[in-house]
User: Which sequence fits this backbone?
């Protein structure tokens, strides 16, 4: 209980700091009416059709690598954006009314998993939300440790394949992609485990009970 309380205070402080930084950034940021279409393209639309053929954790990297510089590259970049946007919206619709922190966490994990580019710093985007979700989890300590082990080992597998390319000069692009697929599947399963073992808030349960009673009467 003390650990959960401490994590809650730490998360609240982090969120307050984030909001203050966001407000400061918004005041100092350029706006579309000052820089025109170029600002909109480079800030927002660029990410819809972004093409990156460098090896990274993304499950799309190998396909991007193979079609880079061809007429298929832009179409593939756009097609890869569609499942990401669809699943992020689905996570919001399915979870936001039941548990808002879980919805934030699930949306961010899905966004990172299905992104066309994924590197280690992307994990920070959802890891800082993990304390909010962990305090409502029914997972045992052993199961939680197993999840952490799977999360780390899947990354280690990818890093091993990348080591062969970057430090040994071997053509291991295909095996980097295979490791990326393993990582994609394992992280997807971990997200499913976290959602399936989440204890939804008492407020939500009471609201459901009240709605059931009203319907019954």
Assistant:
């Amino acid at each position: 209980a003390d650990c959960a309380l401490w994590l809650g205070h730490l998360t609240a402080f982090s969120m307050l700091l984030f909001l203050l930084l966001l407000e400061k950034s918004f005041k100092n940021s350029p706006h579309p009416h000052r820089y025109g279409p170029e600002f909109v393209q480079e800030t927002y639309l660029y990410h819809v059709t972004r093409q990156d053929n460098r090896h990274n954790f993304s499950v799309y990297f190998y396909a991007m690598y193979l079609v880079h510089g061809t007429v298929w590259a832009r179409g593939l970049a756009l097609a890869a954006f569609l499942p990401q946007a669809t699943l992020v919206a689905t996570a919001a619709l399915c979870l936001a009314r039941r548990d808002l922190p879980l919805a934030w966490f699930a949306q961010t994990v899905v966004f990172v998993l299905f992104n066309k580019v994924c590197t280690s710093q992307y994990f920070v985007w959802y890891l800082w939300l993990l304390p909010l979700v962990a305090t409502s989890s029914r997972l045992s300590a052993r199961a939680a440790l197993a999840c952490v082990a799977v999360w780390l080992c899947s990354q280690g597998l990818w890093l091993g394949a990348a080591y062969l390319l970057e430090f040994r000069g071997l053509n291991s692009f295909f095996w980097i992609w295979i490791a990326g697929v393993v990582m994609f599947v394992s992280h997807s399963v971990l997200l499913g485990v976290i959602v399936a073992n989440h204890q939804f808030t008492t407020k939500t349960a009471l609201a459901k009970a009240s709605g059931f009673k009203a319907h019954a009467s």
In short: The mean pLDDT is 82. The CA atoms of residues 151 and 187 lie 7 Å apart. The first helix runs from residue 2 to 28.
